[in-house]
Amino acid sequence: MSETETKAEPVRRSRTSGIDRALQVFDYLQQAGQAATAYEIAREIGAPLSTVYTIIDDLVEKDLLNRDGNGLIWLGPRLYHYGLTYARSLDLLTAAQHEMHELARASGETVQVCGRDQDTMVVLAMEEGGGQFHVTSRVGSRSPLNWTASGRLLVGHLGREELLTIFKRSARVSPTGRAETDPDVLADNAHEALEHGISIQAGESDFAVACIAAPILDASGTCRATMSIVVPEPKVHQKDPDLIALVRASARRVESRLGWSRP
Fold it and tell me: Labelling 137: which of 49, 143, 238, 263 has CA 20 to 30 A away?
């Protein structure tokens, strides 16, 4: 028997790598939205405390995490600099931000540019309107896809089976209890919203608050982001100005700026 034949197959390692553990720490802190102790992090990510201490010490030394005088761990300044560099490279966000400013001026309402991060909708950019109505969400805020007008649009280009899988996994009951949670209904709503080029939710995530969103589609028809206005619920169908028309036109101009032609 040859040496090649007698050599055992390498055993695949099931142990979580250091990089995976570091990402779990980053993900937990991002989702928690506040500093935490090493013990809390270890408990939440299901890792040995000794391992988490070692990883945190290494990341703090490299400025990827920060430890305050009370031992609380938070994201470090090096991540901020990486984020700035990444943001500068996003032509989509640059074009969308320009239109966001114009839409906020024309409508007088709060405008958000939103994207998708796995099973959540995330606010990528935001500008307050000139009126007295203000929203509590800020840049970086996340919501389940089924709570928001933007969430439905961001997955509307996907096939039905993939949508059912996503919504079965991620749909949550909203604080108002009015957000749809049935995966079949959500899949239909997502396709219909993208087909019509507009999505509206009213009172589904917050009482008396509505959102009007339009998709920003690339040349392949994939929804890359949304342009949306957050308004008091009675304003959804107002005609002076026509907020639905303004949001639609703004999203189309972003596509035009990027050379993403649509019929």
Answer: 238
